[in-house]
């Protein structure tokens, strides 16, 4: 039997972020990852630079404006104070794996899938590949098997344009192409390549094949002919309620599994960073508040539940409501709101600028029925 102080299940964003903060401490940690070391899923994590975290050194892109466009409005969000930054998960993996390789307190086991966990008062045991791992605490980032009623489904192409056409503006949401709540996301990188994503907020999990030809046409129409560098496909469950509590006091959910995804946007990276800071404080007996359980986080979840209902039931109206939210609020308010750190006044401003009838209608529905 292998014994540790802490076992982390999953070497993805949340597992590695937590492990990073435990490097070179006297806490013995083991990470169990079902995937192999070589075949890692490569993603780009983007966010506004509004919360300090240890991985800013890895940021490979920085934008000082980004737009939200629909057929009747064009809003340029000024990000000069809080740039819109990106990290390539391949750089993140390498940075942390290199440090784990030379660390004395963290071990990582790939190709080690965790299915069952036995939790007792003083210890937790996990069996995988005929080896039993035991620890006082477990942090679990395995994707949850519970079905969500809405998903963010997206296909992204990293491309090199074949001709050097006009500069393409960064777009957070381009709603101009479709009547439903589907939009395009366009991130220009310093090396003149682009990430272009076709995103759905939907109860249906589309396959990447179903999104390919529409994404291809959009790129050809807006940027021109291109070389495909690689693609990324994602399905993120969007559940505004927090998942049921852990099966025992010493098994803690982390990452998407814990509800760290902002339901109305899919942004998760910064919440994962706040969450790993919280858990490490708790491990070190430092008083700290779980970022997912603050009053503001609860209010945001309620608002997300209302927004997701509108998106699901009235997608065309939802496009206007989101575009109007960008047009009628101050840029800093929007950035704080989307980054999960609005003040109470920001939240009030956003609510006051919403169309009242539809907001109240779906607020009442969300009070009556928790399921979207
Ligand atoms: C393509 C894509 C782009 C994204 N872009 C952004 C973005 O721009 N900004 C943002 O804020 N968020 C973004 N997200 C959302 C979120 O930040 C990421 O999904 C992030 O990787 C979530 O981290 P996680 O640790 O919860 O899950 P993961 O990173 O998926 O980690 C879970 C790990 O658990 C492992 N695992 C699964 N089952 C088992 C098992 N049984 N036993 C052991 N290990 C197991 C998996 O192999 C995986 O390594 C994006 C998501 C995707 C999919």
* Named CATH architecture of the largest domain: 3-Layer(bba) Sandwich
Average per-residue pLDDT, rounded, comes to 93
Order of helices and strands: EHEEEEEEHEEEEEEEEHEEHHHHHH
State the helical fraction.
25-40%
Q: Domains counted in the coordinates: how many? A: 3
| Class derived from helix and strand content | alpha/beta
Calculate the terminal CA-CA distance, rounded to whole Å: 44 Å
Main beta-sheet strand count, sense and barrel state? 7 strands, mixed
For the CA atoms, what is the radius of gyration? Answer: 21 Å
DSSP, total strands: 17
So, the CATH homologous superfamily of the largest domain?
A: FAD/NAD(P)-binding domain
Which regions have little confidence, pLDDT < 50, spanning 5+ residues? none
Give the count of helical stretches.
Answer: 9
Q: Which molecules are bound besides the chains? A: flavin-adenine dinucleotide
Determine the strand fraction and express it as a percent band.
Answer: 25-35%
CATH topology of the largest domain, which one?
FAD/NAD(P)-binding domain
CATH class of the largest domain: Alpha Beta
């Amino acid at each position: 039997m292998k014994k540790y102080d802490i076992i982390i299940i999953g070497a993805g964003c949340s597992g590695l972020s937590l492990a990073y903060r435990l490097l070179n401490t006297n806490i013995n940690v083991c990470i169990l990852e079902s995937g192999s070391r070589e075949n890692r899923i490569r993603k780009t994590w983007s966010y506004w630079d509004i919360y300090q975290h240890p991985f800013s050194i890895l940021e490979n892109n920085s934008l000082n404006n980004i737009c939200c466009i629909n057929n009747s409005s064009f809003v340029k969000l000024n990000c000069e104070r809080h740039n819109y930054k990106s990290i390539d998960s391949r750089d993140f993996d390498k940075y942390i794996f290199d440090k784990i390789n030379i660390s004395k307190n963290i071990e990582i086991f790939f190709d080690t899938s965790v299915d069952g966990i036995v939790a007792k008062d003083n210890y937790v045991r996990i069996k995988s590949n005929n080896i039993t791992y035991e620890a006082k605490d477990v942090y679990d980032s395995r994707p949850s098997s519970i079905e969500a009623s809405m998903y963010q489904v997206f296909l992204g192409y990293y491309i090199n344009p074949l001709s050097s056409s006009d500069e393409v503006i960064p777009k957070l949401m381009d709603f101009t192409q479709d009547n439903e709540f589907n939009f395009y996301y366009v991130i220009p990188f310093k090396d003149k390549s682009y990430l272009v994503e076709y995103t759905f907020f939907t109860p249906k999990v589309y396959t990447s094949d179903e999104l390919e030809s529409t994404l291809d046409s959009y790129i050809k129409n807006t940027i021109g002919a291109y070389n495909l560098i690689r693609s990324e496909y994602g399905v993120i469950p969007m559940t505004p309620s927090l998942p049921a509590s852990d099966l025992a006091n010493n098994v803690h959910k982390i990452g998407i599994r814990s509800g760290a995804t902002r339901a109305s946007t899919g942004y998760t990276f910064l919440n994962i960073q706040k969450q790993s800071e919280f858990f490490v404080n708790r491990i070190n007996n430092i008083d700290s508040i779980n970022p997912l359980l603050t009053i503001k986080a609860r209010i945001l979840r309620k608002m997300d539940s209302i927004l997701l209902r509108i998106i699901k039931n009235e997608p065309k109206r939802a496009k206007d409501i989101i575009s109007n939210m960008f047009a009628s609020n101050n840029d800093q308010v929007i950035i704080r709101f989307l980054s999960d750190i609005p003040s109470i006044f920001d939240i009030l401003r956003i609510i006051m600028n919403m169309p009242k009838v539809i907001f109240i209608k779906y607020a009442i529905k969300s009070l009556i029925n928790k399921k979207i």
